[in-house]
Amino acid sequence: MLRLRLSQLWTLTLAGILAGTMLAAAALPAVVLGAVGLRAVGARYEDLPQDLRTPPTAQRSYLFAADGRTPITSFYDENRTNVALGQVAEVMRQATVAAEDARFYSHGGVDVKGVLRALVANRIGGEVRQGASTLTMQYVRNVLKSDPELTAEQRAGATATSPGRKIQEMRYAIALERRLSKDEILGRYLNIAYFGAGAYGVAAASQRYFSKPARQLTLAEAALLAGLLRSPETDSPIGGNAEAALVRRGYVLRQLAETGAITAETATRTQAEPIRLRAGAEPNDCAGIPDGRAEWGFFCDYFRQWWNANPAFGRTVDQRQQALRRGGYRIVASLDPALQATALRQTLTVYGYADRRAAPMAVVQPGTGRVLAMAVNRHYRLDPNPSGQRNHPNTVNQLVAGGGGIDGYQAGSTFKIFTLLAALEAGMPLSSAYLAPSRLVTGYPNDGPHACAGYWCPANANPDWMDGYRTMWTAFGRSVNTYFVALQQRIGADRAVRMAERLGIVFRADSDARLATYGAKGWGAFTLGVAATTPLDLANAYATLAAEGTYCKPLPVLSIVDPTGRSLAAARPSCGRMIRAEVARAATDAARCPVGGQSAYLQCDGGSAPEVTKMLGDRPVAGKTGSAEGYTSESFVGITPQVAAAGFAVNPDDPSDAVGQPVQRKVIAAVARTMAAALVGKPRRNFAPPGQQIAFGYGEGDLAPPPVGPTPEPFAPAPAPTVPAAPPPAPTPTATATVPRPTAPPPVPPRPTATVPRPVRTTPPVGAAAAPRPAPPPPSAYD
User: Fold this and answer.
1) Which of 87, 254, 489, 679 is deepest in the core (most CB within 10 A)?
2) What pairing do the DSSP bridges indicate for beta strands 61-64 and 330-333?
3) CB-neighbour burial class of residue 357 (10 A; exposed 0-12, middle 13-18, buried 19+)
4) Number of Cβ atoms within 10 Å of the Cβ of 354
5) Helices 90-100 and 219-227, interaxial angle, to 10°?
6) Dist CA 712 CA 255 (whole Å)
7) 200-228 as b/e, with b when 16 or more CB fall inside 10 Å?
8) Sign for the pseudo-dihedral over CA of 324, 330, 335, 340
9) Is the previous residue joined to 274 through a cis bond, with omega within 30 degrees of 0?
């Protein structure tokens, strides 16, 4: 017993000496400290840890819709939003000081009386019963333990109950008080303190407990929050102990009365009031979006993908995630709430929430790449699904933009645009003509079900409507498979693949990526859309045509502002010319044919989606339909100068599930109606017509040099029609062809070699017997 008492006495004496030294440093002016040699007791402000000089408090980042007002969600590790002290109710400031450090405005960072009282109580009693931490010292402790660079051991050391830790806090507190004003320290403290229920800082606490900003707190509310600072979790009335919270509130009110901030009568009257909570919960991350907007989670998920891939927010993905969850950004997304609602309604006309099949759709702004809407008949939720229903109606799979295990869906004939663009870029005009057969025996070796004597031989889906003499205009309008396979052979399949990549098509499936990298020259089926893609990639690729060859990376934001008010350049569109304007105009002109429009030179003679032009009120529109083999997916992509959109019908969990061709009409209507809604209130804008040379191969124009190497026929420019001096207005499309017919079929091409396409002969050479044809396999369902 004697040894214990001597130990306590020695500890008390030593701590008293240290404390006395610190207190002397805190109480004396700096000039006196210098005279007596005590300046070294307190740390210099310049020597303080950087975190104390510029506290790295984690703040919640907010994501708003394009109107800048409608919240989508927020991202945080710690639910905190820093506010200036002037935005905190005065009574909250008074309550905090009264509860935690009544002599805050009179000491120099260390409270003399508090230290002595704590030393006596704790050392004589043999245990820690009282603390002597001033509000400034508490702030130091909170900053040090919040440093994200600390290890778990270092963080534990920052909060350890030891004389060494106390002395360090005292030294740092004295240094801070020499440089910062009392109000600056109080403001920093209120922003970093934890109030329980996941709320860090007074702004978050005010919203969490009372659903109001901190400047509107009442006396009773402020006293409750200040009372939570000692034991924020155990005393919290939300999930904690409401009785303990009430007791602590009474303590704070009595302290306020003692300091003279309120009268004793006011304290008694206020304490008699019941605790009135209006608890609010800040959504966290994409799965936390409130009910009623759960479908916005797919856009939010894409935003998060974009952020994590952007080096502007950190060197690694982990650093970028930390920046989002701790950086306190105010982000205005490109999501248009009204257009998003329209897109969702339209997808639900294709399939309902309970359907195993999905109808994902994406809407993009040409010329900026900004993503205006992302919709699908699913709830972005982690909630379990009904028995037997896989990934519907709840899922967090990215069905619209791909990624996270979603490779995309076959887009069918929408991919013919890449072959058409590559051919135009290689110098072939839109009038390049070919007598398209029902089935084409190619030069691509193949032993599969669509092979003829060891070569791939695709067929047209509707021979009566597709076969015959075609140009790029009419072949694209009627989606003639044999024309585009032959055209791809002429220019090389690798050119079509590279064109798709240039326009942002990402080959997410491993098999597609291998073919694109190592086997592009032999990828004969590429032009028929066998590669997987997503609605977002497809819409944005076609948006490049609407922007006359300017490709923009998909962008989900309008602005990003950091806590200091600085706007980040990462929110600006990232665009560049990917194809020449004349090539883009020509491709767009051909894409007028499928949707019931008319080309600048009146060359369209039918289309696979003729209803689209009328659905858009006869605005200039272009686009293309697509069907995967076996009708396992149906798609449509449309563009105007102001908007691009793409939609699919598919079973994302079973790619072999045939959705059937009839659903394509629903997809077309859903995309077209969404585009029409996006154009409401916008001026009519026309597509620029292509020049005569790129259209017909003569006259002035900006053409690429002719392709290098052998140029196997069957293509030859069509006889030049009479071209008006100025492009005429688009007439009402008719069912009759307007393309001039040649007087004789094209010349018979040479027999193919291992690298030259093998077109089907339409007539045998003069004086020769017709070559026997292999037995045709069942026709392909590609559209």
Assistant:
1) 489
2) parallel
3) buried
4) 11
5) 30
6) 95
7) bbbbbbbbbbbeebbbebbbbbbbbbbbb
8) positive
9) no
CB 678 within 8 A of CB 642: yes
277 Rama class: left (phi>0) / alpha (psi -120 to 50) / beta = beta
Q: At a CB cut-off of 8 Å and minimum separation 6, what does 228 contact?
A: 195, 196, 205, 235, 236, 245, 248
Query: CB under 8 Å, gap of 24 or more: what pairs does 234-239 form?
Result: 235/196, 236/195, 236/196, 236/197, 237/209, 237/275, 237/277, 238/196, 238/197, 238/208, 238/209, 238/277, 238/279, 239/197
| Cα angle 61-372-392, degrees, rounded to a multiple of 5 | 80
| SS3 assignment, position 55 | coil
| 642 alpha carbon, distance to own chain's centre | 21
Structure token pair of residue 221: 């509310």
pLDDT in tens, 226-267: 999 999 989 999 977 889 999 999 999 999 999 999 999 999
Report the distance separating Cα 304 and Cα 562, nearest Å.
Answer: 17
Give CA–CA dist 232/86, Å, rounded.
24
Tokens (6 digits) for 239: 């999930």
Q: With contact defined as beta carbons under 8 Å apart, do 627 and 783 qualify?
A: yes
| Distances, alpha carbon 632 to alpha carbons 291, 481, 509, 539, in Å | 32, 18, 17, 20
> For the segment 397-415, what is each residue's pLDDT rounded down to a tens digit?
999 999 999 999 999 999 9
User: Distance between CA atoms of 368 and 247, rounded to whole angstroms?
Assistant: 58
With b for 16 or more beta-carbon neighbours within 10 A and e for fewer, the 407-443 pattern comes to bbbbbbbbbbbbbbbbbbbbbbbbbbbbbbbbbbbbb
Residue pLDDT, tens place only, 339-353: 999 999 999 999 999
Q: 407 is written with which tokens?
A: 């490779």
- The CA distance from 259 to 96, in Å, is 12
pLDDT digits (tens, 9 = 90+) for 558-590: 999 999 999 999 999 999 999 999 999 999 999
> DSSP labels for 718-753?
PPPPPPPSSPPPPPPP-SS--SPPPSSPPPPPPPP-
**Helical (H) or strand (E) element with 190:** helix 182-192
Q: How many CB atoms lie within 10 A of CB 182?
A: 15
Classify residue 243 by burial, with Cβ atoms within 10 Å: 0-12, 13-18, 19+.
exposed
Which amino acid is residue 552, in one-letter code?
Answer: C
Token pair, residue 670, equals 């859903």
| Gap between the Cα atoms of 323 and 59, Å rounded | 9
The amino acid at residue 691 is: G
Query: In what order do the strands lie in the sheet containing 633-639?
Result: 371-375, 361-364, 644-650, 633-639, 622-627
In whole angstroms, what is the distance from residue 415 CA to residue 497 CA? Answer: 10
Largest CA distance in the chain: 128
Backbone region of residue 132 per phi and psi (left: phi > 0; alpha: psi in -120 to 50; beta: other values): alpha
From 523, 497, 367, select the one nearest 445 (Cα to Cα).
523
Token couple for 83: 């506010």
> On the CB side of 741, how many CA atoms lie within 13 Å of its CA?
8
Calpha distance 313→725 (Å, rounded): 53
Nearest to 300 by CA among 269, 340, 358: 340
